[in-house]
Specification:
Shape: globular
Largest sheet: 6 strands, mixed
Radius of gyration: 19 Å
Number of helices: 7
Strand content: 25-35%
CATH superfamily of one domain: lpxc deacetylase, domain 1
Low-confidence stretches: none
Mean pLDDT: 92
CATH class of one domain: Alpha Beta
Helix content: 10-25%
Distance between the termini: 20 Å
Order of helices and strands: EEEEEEEEHEHEEEEEEHEHEHEHEH
Length: 305
């Protein structure tokens, strides 16, 4: 049997929040066995805590948001994915703001922090959720579906499909969690230029720039509008006919967007609160349907207790 794991020591990462633009520090600390993954808002009176569990997710627009007793912690999925991939069962994450810093839009800094301090076994045994029969959730409106099949380990197959000449169909697969750091962790979040202005109007990407997201220009828009968005994103102006990725840095993988969707799914599935033994086949996954699956599994876990 495998033992539960926590961190050997504490590490911190600092950066701005994607949605607030605020400077935020997240400090990852060892935690007692059986306590799970927990976020603590150290900037608030009484330093309230929220367990990283699917039932506390109240928003899934451009990120996964935990809410409990009016207290929120946003953009948790990349940190949770890194912890899950490392097999860490118990950890306290202190944040001095309402979200986890976005950093470069991937999970690589969290993975590096975990690798730097290492992990330690605890006395208690790991508790797995073992998939015995097919589990399926789907959303006819978006065409998204998640299927989980029995499997003796944990793996994900992820397919994405957008009506876009730049980003159409992509496929990513992770067979072993040990490969997460090399194959998945560095893959960045992405957004379409056509979405940027709407997101800014809704205050959803105040901290977003070309350091922490792939920005995809795939549909011609008026030059004046494109120039305005380029100024907002702090990049040189380009011709309205020049479709492609706006970023100055190259893609880290040819299928980086699909790999990032796999990263997000890993973080959202971590909110079942236990390591899962099963194979997930994901078609057009997103935070909303990911949370639906995690909630369904959480219900099954509670019913079996």
């Amino acid at each position: 049997m495998n033992k539960q794991l926590t961190l050997k020591d504490t590490f911190s990462v600092s950066g701005k929040g994607l949605h607030t633009g605020l400077p935020i520090t997240a400090t990852f600390q060892p935690a007692p066995e059986g306590s799970g993954i927990c976020f603590k808002r150290v900037d608030l009176a009484n330093q309230p805590e929220i367990r990283a569990l699917a039932e506390f997710v109240e928003q899934t627009e451009r990120g996964t948001v935990l809410v409990k007793d009016g207290v929120t912690v946003s953009t948790i999925e990349h940190a949770c994915a890194a912890l899950y991939a490392a097999g860490i069962d118990n950890c306290i994450i202190e944040v001095n703001g309402p979200e986890v810093p976005i950093l470069d839009g991937s999970a690589i800094e969290f993975v590096k922090g975990i690798q730097q301090v290492g992990t330690v076994e605890q006395d208690a045994e790991k508790e797995y959720y073992i998939v015995r029969e097919k589990i399926e959730v789907s959303d006819p409106k978006t065409g998204a579906s998640l299927i989980v099949l029995p499997y003796d380990s944990f793996s994900i197959t992820c397919l994405i499909s957008f009506n876009s000449p730049i980003l159409n169909n992509q496929f990513a697969r992770l067979e072993r969690m040990e490969d997460f750091g090399e194959e998945i962790a560095a893959c960045r979040t992405f957004v379409f230029v056509r979405e940027v202005e709407l997101l800014l109007k809704h205050n959803l990407i105040k901290g977003g720039d070309l350091d922490n997201a792939l920005v995809i220009y795939d549909q011609p828009i008026p030059q004046e509008e494109l120039d305005r968005i380029a100024d907002i994103m702090k990049v040189p102006h380009k011709s309205t006919e020049q479709l492609g990725y706006i970023n100055n840095s190259p893609l880290r993988f040819d299928n980086e967007p699909a790999r990032h969707k796999l990263l997000d799914l890993t973080g959202d599935i971590a909110l079942i609160g236990k390591p899962l033994k099963g194979h997930i086949i994901a078609m057009r996954p997103g935070h909303k349907i990911n949370n639906q699956l995690a909630r369904l599994i959480r219900t099954q876990i509670e019913n079996n207790n």
